[in-house]
Amino acid sequence: MHYLKKSLNNKKGIIVITHKEYNKVKELSSFKVLSNNNYIALHVGFNIRIPLAWYLPTSKISLFLMPSFHWTPTWIRKTDFCTRRFTPDYFLNQPGGDRPIDIIYIGRINKMKNSLKIASFVKKLNLKTVFIGFYQGGEDSYYQEFLDVVNSSDNINYINGTGIRNADFWGTSQREISEYLKQSKVYIHGCVNEGESRSIHEAFLSGCILLIPKNMKGGGLDYYNQLNYSLYEDDTIYVSLIEAINKSKYFRDLPESHSKLLDSNSIALFKDKVKSLLPDIDKSEDGWDTEKLNLKLCAHYLNIPWYKEGSVTADIYTSESLQTFLSYNCIE
């Protein structure tokens, strides 16, 4: 949950909730009061496999923030300003420079991400590979198998962020990740069901070729073109990987459309869009919190008092954590 725009001058504010929070908080009495004085925007950060109407029985949701691939009824208010539209500028690739890392994987280590399958494959290759990730629990035997593979490999370097908190989130900091990406030729992705795919677009902005599953669904394909992507299936991954590495020798310039994924290019456009869609808000520049929206919109920003220690995200599920949110933001 994020207080995007404060209520000022007797005008409504804007509170963004995540798709995970929605069903948990919509029946809380304090949330019902909150929604009377603020617009509620829903950030949809996953590949919708159920009708969007699941979220629409209530009039409390005034705006949807979601990737463009989602089909939605024409009558709802929506914008494609989701987390990937606020990628920090330091991810942007700078021309020139060596890329000593052949393959890079970034993400949680679990079955959904196919981490073990990818590690087992790249172990067989004489290609320098970096895994940047962390384990969140619940799949101990799977994680141990993964560790056995990477620890027995001469060409895989696992940067383990398990249990490590940086300033904003779990694991390796974003700025460190950007530096690794800008030294890598190919970014490999294992998950087939994606939302806005923030990590994919960070890699693309950093100049990596994207090696992604051919059957992937969701926003990771929104900027697909044959120059910057290679698609793989389990039985063709080796050929696809070699193709991706060959592409990396020539591809360094980003399509102009990707400039809109940068935080510095999106903030003003986002505010203007929101003002046009939600007319009953204060039109001044006061009261906006647009810092680190790539993390805050999806509750990945953890440096806040309602974060429950040990959780992967800072989603609000209880009346107690909602009350902490209200007190922190001075909302009555």
Order of helices and strands: EEHHEEEEHEHEHEHEEHHHH
Derived from helix and strand composition plus strand pairing, the structural class reads alpha/beta
Placed side by side, the strands forming the largest sheet appear as 8-7-6-9-10-11
Low-confidence stretches: none
Name the features.
11 strands; alpha/beta; about 30% helix; single chain; about 325 residues; 6-stranded parallel beta sheet; 5-stranded mixed beta sheet
Notes on the structure:
It is globular, with a radius of gyration of 21 Å. It contains ten helices and eleven strands. By secondary structure, it is α/β, with parallel strands linked by helices. The protein has helices spanning 19-25, 29-37, 115-123, 140-151, 174-181, 198-205, 237-248, 263-277, 293-296, 319-328, and strands at 2-5, 13-18, 38-43, 61-65, 78-79, 101-108, 129-134, 156-160, 184-188, 209-213, 229-232. Strand 9 (184-188), helix 6 (198-205) and strand 10 (209-213) form a beta-alpha-beta unit. The strands form two sheets. Strands 8-7-6-9-10-11 form a six-stranded parallel β-sheet, with helices on both faces. 28% of the residues lie in helices and 17% in strands.
